[in-house]
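Tutorial handout. Part one gives the primary structure; part two gives the three-dimensional structure as tokens.
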Amino acid sequence: MPYVRLFTLFDFEDESIEDLKMLLIRTLMKEALAMIKSQIAFGRKSVLEAYGVILFRAWKGIDGVLKEEFEDGFLQSLIEGSIYANSVVLADLR
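Part two.
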């Protein structure tokens, strides 16, 4: 976890960091997508609902190109994973 402290050294308000922010967000989105997708079929309802709250807050907090990428790639992939999940619990969520 020592790498987490490195993020405090960046000035995320400065315009010069936009490219790095986009790169970090895209990288983290891919990792988060893989983690969440792996739990869709077997996750407890409370865990899946918590993911939903997190994703909704993330979606509300972004705009522009990043929002399009989030909707068209990240969310679309999660929706497809949920549709194809073979679970009675998830069938109730649809």
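Part three, for discussion. The mean pLDDT is 80. The two ends are 37 Å apart (CA to CA).
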